[in-house]
Amino acid sequence: MSAAATKTGFGDRPRALAPKPPLAAIALVSAAAIGYEILLLRLFSIIQWHHFAYMIISLALLGYGSSGTFLAIAGRWPQRSYTALFAANAVFFGFSSVGCFLLAQRVPFNPLELLWEPRQFLLLAAIYVLLSIPFFFAANCIGLSFYRFRDRVGRIYGSDLLGAGVGAAGVIVLLLALSPSEALRALGALGPVAAALSVFGSGVNRRWLAVALLAATAAVPLLLPGPWTDLRMSPYKGLSQALRVSGAKVVEQRFSPFGLLSVVESRKIPFRHAPGLSLLSPAGPPDQLAVFTDGGALTVINRYRENEAPPAYLDFLTSALPYRLLRRPKVLVVGAGGGTDVLQALYHRAESIDAVELNPRMADLMRRDYAAFAGRIFDRQNVRLHVIEARAFAAASEDRFDLIQMALVDAFGPSSAGLLALNESYLYTVEALERFLARLAPGGLLAITRWTKLPPRDGPKLLATAIAALRKSGVARPERRLALIRSWKTSTLLVKNGEFSGDDVAVIRRFCRRRAFDIAYMPGLLAEETNRYNRLGRDYFFEAASALLGAGGEDFADRYKYDIAPATDDRPYFFNFFKWRLLPEVFGLRGMGGLGLMEWGYPVLAATLVQAAAAGLLLILLPLWIGGRGGTAPSGIRRHRVLIYFLALGLAFLFVEIAFIQKFILFLSHPLYAAAVVLSAFLVFAGLGSLFSTRLRQRGIAGTRPGNPCLLAAAAIAAIAAGLLAVLPSLLPLLAPLPEPVKAAVTFLLIAPLAFFMGMPFPLGLARLGEQDAELIPWAWAINGCASVLAAVLATLLAVEFGFTAVVVLAVGFYGAAAWAYF
Amino acid sequence: MPTVISAAAVAAARIRTYGSPPLTVLVFLFLVLSPPPAMAEPDDGFAEKRAEMIAVISALAKRIGKVSGKGVMDEGVMEVMARVPRHEFVPEERRDDAYDNRPLPIGFGQTISQPYIVALMTDLLVLAPGASVLEVGTGSGYQAAVLAELARRVFTIEIIDELGELAKKRLAGLGYANIRARVGDGYYGWPEGAPFDAIIVTAAASHIPPPLIQQLKPGGRMVIPVGEWFDVQYLTLIEKNAEGEIIISQLLPVAFVPLTGEH
Question: Which of A230, A254, A318, A431 has the fewest Cβ atoms within 10 Å of its own Cβ atom?
């Protein structure tokens, strides 16, 4: 940003005849726009659900594409009043960013009814349109600048990227300090500030007055009445539901980029959260406080008095099984949340307990605000709370545990909506289970508890993943190391570092009999022992376990209607069970309540892609149709080459960006940090690459002007990407124990060369257009905008099917295609 | 097992239970004011839609068959579904959609279940005419109304104040004298009304409340749908046998097998 700021033209007034682009203002608009995009993901994750958040924002970004289209259609007139138009668009961006969100959240769209009611699609479309408006204005600022200062596109694009890079990281900082709705006001104020900045450097007459007026308008978003910007959460979210109950109220709220935490107290009607509690439990849960993240993902804090025995119900959950097989174990609790699993470990007299928690605010609640309520369990000498992601902890820890307890942890949850809130989870992959198994002491247990889904899908998938992890760890007979039990609502899988003994098996039998739980699998289990207490039409858990452990495992997985192939770090989609052939059958069964038979994330994403492609096509074709010109511009540039060039670049840039965010999630411990750091690195260094591209075009490397500078960039990108893909898998785990800020710096350095070259092709192409046929610049801007939207959705779909490595390889191919199409 | 319950029998059952007005007067009023529904449907302008709904449910019921283990749905349940004015239980502006086989929002973040699921759950309870039923989660009151047409007495509890009061008023207005509704915590059931022949828990529950198991008669049945808002994932059926033992079954509301190449 500083590089851009010094070049803004402060003090350049005497040379007003040769105006300079307002680089600082451009950077600020870009920063605010990307900040707004990330903020929208947070806001929609709170008021709706994150996969809809993702869908809505992807399509809202078509505002970028429509800006290009608008400018292309508008023709020459916008350049005549550039300064006024830039300022106006910046102000409109600021106002509409706040206003359109406030309107959008009042649209009575209910995603849960989408499949029942066609009207919902119209409401959804209304939200897209509303939210694309601010992006339209922001993109106008940049697009106008490209067109007006076509001889300086490298500088403009550089400022745009640098600003965006700072914005991506900056919004995270903003979200640490401000509540989401405060952050919205703050970003809204940046629009008028950017406008003032642009006018300030423009050299127009009486600019001080204009600057003062614009600066004053920045106060408008900040002064909106509080209730206007209150978030309106869907009434179907857990928090809304809890608050409907008489006497329930939010007693504490904490915000951070990790999510909005709401602590709810319900004095009149207790929460009694005890998932899958045995009917034979002598007691129910004690008083509880509920903690919601982004209005969902419930965790509870149990009331507990320090010197009392912990509540007995904790022994009547399926997750209690491992404690019956171990004596005074050293325990690692993954996902400490409200501390229930820690209390359960205390109940079973664990020798020591290490608990990891991702959200620092959650840890604060447990260690400070509600420490007394929870009986100060985290102050005990043998209990340690670590604020870190579980795999990072496992990588850094030297300890060996007798028990690693993962109970109902939905890794990274929907709450952590980074820029690219995907459904990825690095907790339930083959590699993750391998690492956890490696941290087990001999005879130790990894226990994973999940909600029961019917027909079974995550149960079998988890089993398949555990089997794959065991095999990869060199275990010849995984069937002797696994046990799976289930209640009517939860199931617990045990993976042992060693083989289950005859005694173990007897203990499991007794544990389950006394709690009316079913054994779905353990060594030596007979079919007639299964499906006793919680009867299924057929015990698919048992069948799946037997089949997956046998020779026909793969055939079984193929024949299974759900995708139960193990998730891997390259395809970290544990929660996606979707197979295409499921869709018609399930939709046909909706009259019988069949929609609950599958997860809708994947088809929703596919639908997003179709919508984005249709809208993008329209936006790209519209200027051609209205312009009414043929395939070849007067300059001789073939339009299809321009199209291929900018389409390929738009796709490629985002493919690489998204794939590397994924590659660094584990390293940086959190998807949100990964998104912020990786995005920043890409944008900042691509910005520098863009600035450098000007020189490359003029002089080439070592003074020789290359015929196709884009080819050079593409070759460099291919080489560096290949190198990173080869090196990262072994390098990153080695660096995992480094402190977080160092890791962020390492990430910057690793990404810098790749990003640097990725910043070049776009301005190279624009500059070329500027020389030959400037009328095409807005069109290229539209193509690029549409391609970016497509890319974000497509990359996820491709990653689900083929993995992120494939996404990078494809991106390199796109750079090759762009180099070929360079005109 | 399937029992066809005539409207007169239902009316009589109601009267026997809460016969505070003179019995004869009520019977007289009933005969004069509303013709027996089994013979002619109430003329509320929705008769046609109700008939369509029944046709849809019947067709689906034939496909499901196996779930309840009985082949088709109880005729008595279907008759009642054909009678209860579902449009009275949905928000004014959604009345036209009331008989579509789909869940509808009723405000307060709650929904009225899709008719097919209501029929299925009711069917799973296997109600005898003299049955006493507890419902946890009144919601719109529609399920309670359906139960009231089949059972002798229905007790229903709603946790959300506004919703509970609305349902109470609505049920009273529709003349369901054999329904007792109250607002409050359903976890402990309704001890004064216990034991029950059938219990239905339509409110979300992380576990099965033990007090409800206690209030279930030997031979009684309890149904708990599991799922979220608009979609039912599965139904949990809890049976208490004559010895007081508990058997839990988890049923899909649909005919669906997760493996291909079999049926």
Answer: A230
